[in-house]
Amino acid sequence: MKERLIATCEKKEKISTYALIVSTPQKYGRLMKTLLDIALSTKRLNNLIPFALTRDDSAGYYALVAHQARFIENHRNIPIMNVPIQAESIEGSQGISLTKALYTNSAIQRLAFNAQNNK
Question: What's the pTM value of the predicted model, to 2 decimals?
């Protein structure tokens, strides 16, 4: 599930971002840890944020949440390819244009059109 993460650290401002949270009942905790250790033993995941760090290493947790916040800010742009410039005024089957449909979606913060690449 998508959740909001908040981190604080001495003399630094509070950071807030979103992340995909994976949780398991406590009785499966040891099994989940073993599965994650096996799955991740050959891979390096820079975007895994263990909640235990909030107690064990708050500065490390803060750094990981800050990294996640930068990642989300820089990589959440999703291009929609082959969009003609007329998409702003052509109404679709729902009676609204693509531009209006995107602007009325509360999860979308901004739109941009690249005429050279039609996206």
Answer: 0.53
